[in-house]
Amino acid sequence: MSSAPRSPTPRPRRMKKDESFLGKLGGTLARKRRAREVSDLQEEGKNAINSPMSPALADVHPEDTQLEENEERTMIDPTSKEDPKFKELVKVLLDWINDVLVEERIIVKQLEEDLYDGQVLQKLLEKLAGCKLNVAEVTQSEIGQKQKLQTVLEAVHDLLRPRGWALRWSVDSIHGKNLVAILHLLVSLAMHFRAPIRLPEHVTVQVVVVRKREGLLHSSHISEELTTTTEMMMGRFERDAFDTLFDHAPDKLSVVKKFADGVYLVLLMGLLEDYFVPLHHFYLTPESFDQKVHNVSFAFELMLDGGLKKPKARPEDVVNLDLKSTLRVLYNLFTKYKNVE
């Protein structure tokens, strides 16, 4: 018995060799083109930021090059960040903030990352000024953070404006994690509240400014001065004989370091005024910075009791081995007691 012939089973259409190859090639080219566009954008940003006078910025992020028309962005040149004096300034300010906020159990590790939202700045100002700001304690939204920053910075401005401080920061620059603006703010606060720290003098950084115009990125470099001299920052602009002495013979003045812990100053006041200073009023062998500041402050009180004018120097200046400050204190003693037998 013969069976009916089977109809051939339909087979799937085989893609022609050239069609398969062209399809894959087209997809590959599209992916490569997109990757090249991203790479070109980043390279454009790097080329705009870099100049023949500055090293390549290896840490430029893609978002730093994606600007709107006429938008401007600033960043510190990496070479400036490696400068020892800049590192010292950041460390001194970090240590100061953490010392002030130790009772709040707040630890600041990075200035731009920890201060931008206004939370830490609020606590810092409240602690320094002994006030309470009317702001929300915690806010996550950008609008809420900027509102808090606005309130905090307005309080700062009210404190600094009467003294003629140049305000070189804004809500947008602080919230934008602009480290230069944050440093300007902290240096001003430290000077206004006479922080018991010694900021490194003449700290200057190179700042890269990137702006987008007509679809192209343009860069420029500017020098930004963060600190000057201690005397200028403290508002002491006069020069006197001690400035001249210090300028010409600083190597002869190491002897004043013996007064840095305040012990000799206290004992000297007792000898000059002919009284015994009870030992429980000061630290005979001070070990910490605070104990030394206590001693010098106590010596200043004894000077006021003895009829001397209030010293221009701060106790912290003497403890920090500021030679001119210490000399001025000793000169005041000399002028009053030089004829005492």
Map the helices and strands:
Blueprint: H1 17-49, E1 72-76, H2 78-81, H3 84-100, H4 111-115, H5 119-129, H6 142-160, H7 171-175, H8 179-192, E2 204-213, E3 216-225, H9 230-233, H10 241-248, H11 263-273, H12 289-305, H13 315-319, H14 323-337
Antiparallel strand pairs: 1-2, 2-3
What is the N-to-C order of secondary-structure elements (H for helix, E for strand)? HEHHHHHHHEEHHHHHH
Number of strands: 3
Mean pLDDT: 77
Helical fraction equals 40-55%
Indicate the proportion of strand residues.
5-15%
**Count of helical regions:** 14
Uncertain segments of ≥5 residues (pLDDT<50)?
Answer: 14-22, 48-64
What Rg is obtained from the alpha carbons, in whole angstroms?
A: 32 Å
Q: What does the main sheet amount to?
A: 3 strands, antiparallel
Major beta sheet, strand line-up: 1-2-3
Distance between the termini: 149 Å
Structural class: mainly alpha
